Amino acid sequence: MIGHLPVDVDDMSSGSAGTDPHPGAVLRLPPTARSAGEARRFLCALLEQAGRVGWVDRAELALSEVVTNGVLHAHTDLVVRVHLRDHEVEVEVQDANPVLPQQRRGADVEATTGRGLDLVAALTRDCGVRAEPGGKVVWFTVGDGPAADLDEDDLLAAWDVDGWDADPTPEMSTEVVLRGLPPTLWMAAREHHQPLLRELVLYLAEHGAATPSPPDLRAADEARALVWTALTAVVDRAREQGAVRSPLPPGHPASLPEVPETVDLVLHVPLRLGVAFGALQDALDLSERLAVADLLLARPGLPEVVALRDWVCEQVVAQLAGVPAAPWAGTDQERFTDLVHDRADPELPRWDASVVTGSDRGVVAADDANRIIAISAPLARATGWDPAELVGRRVVALIPPALREAHVAGFTRHLSTGQAHVLGVALELPVLRRDGSEVLCHFLVERAEVSSGRPVYLAWISPVEG
Fold this sequence. Notes:
Blueprint: E1 3-5, H1 9-12, E2 25-29, H2 35-49, H3 56-74, E3 78-84, E4 88-95, H4 116-123, E5 126-132, E6 135-143, H5 152-158, E7 173-181, H6 183-207, H7 217-240, E8 263-270, H8 276-292, H9 303-320, H10 334-337, H11 354-357, E9 363-367, E10 372-375, H12 377-383, H13 387-390, H14 401-417, E11 427-432, E12 438-447, E13 456-463
Antiparallel strand pairs: 1-2, 2-3, 3-4, 4-6, 5-6, 7-8, 9-10, 9-13, 11-12, 12-13
Helix pairs in contact: 2-3, 3-4, 6-7, 6-8, 6-9, 6-14, 7-8, 8-9
């Protein structure tokens, strides 16, 4: 139930600066999408009643971000406490999930997620997180004077990332090995999973009662965090040892991180999390179905991304049952280059395809499902395909196997974060012919003009003379 304890605001502000003579106003919230709005209204009323109107905008926005993060990731009831003092207001948000926030990733200017805690740090005078028995508290203060002008290093320091240690109590666990896990692809998959699961939480808040057997989102989050924490540690060690490489050709403008090509990732899976990987797979399966049906803002995942997370989840479940580890089969699989049959997505973007089909230059058009929707006759001839055979296949049919993982990771990152480093940049890359040979080509990728609907991407391609 949503509700708050009544409190006399005058009593709250009667102490001297730096003291807290009153236990504060308290608001108890369920983990639903409406809680952020309820928290904002609660805090706004308190500040306006106390005559601290100048603090309202920053405090409301910071509280909204913290409560939203709690709803999306804690999956427990929340308790908001407001301590009003002479020169500042301190706001605490407590939940019953002991998993502490992870270090934040950078967010592109077009990204729809990933800025929450950065924003809190930039808006407030001070902020942090502390572990408590059975959960944690995220807190911040807002007061007289402007918020600090913080750069990225200041933001990380403000949140004291190095001090965020999880409960050190050891648990009984079983060792699981993910053999041949591709870090580049899993990092991109993680960026796709974040908006998917965020949208799923918001969807279930409104439609959960009509959703049969909704997945355990808290367990799914724990499984996802377990893999990410282990992979981050392995990649960090490899970087210290110089055992990393760029997945992209020299001079490519995209920003995929330098990582090992593959790793044998060892997970120590607590016995209580044995079911969590099934929950993660169920949650992402449901998210993908909703995304395909245009019921989420996030786009569906590319087949390689979906296949990789299925393999990770199924490997953990199978190895916990005593089945030997099976390695990741890689992105060079025929099912990834075949005609697209498995997407309930028949409608093509509305645009004039004659710019491609009538061109005397090499050009191919693809949609945001990475599906070829038109190709010019000159490019089809140069690659050994008939246009009718190539339309409907995925773009990876024209990409050499050695570059497919990087392509899928880069395009997934673009869909998830808005990053678009290759658009409008002249490149030289190999193109795969139908007979398996390769030809080095000039590339220029741009976004096509569409009247409505989803985006279309044009790649102008011509062989390098020589």
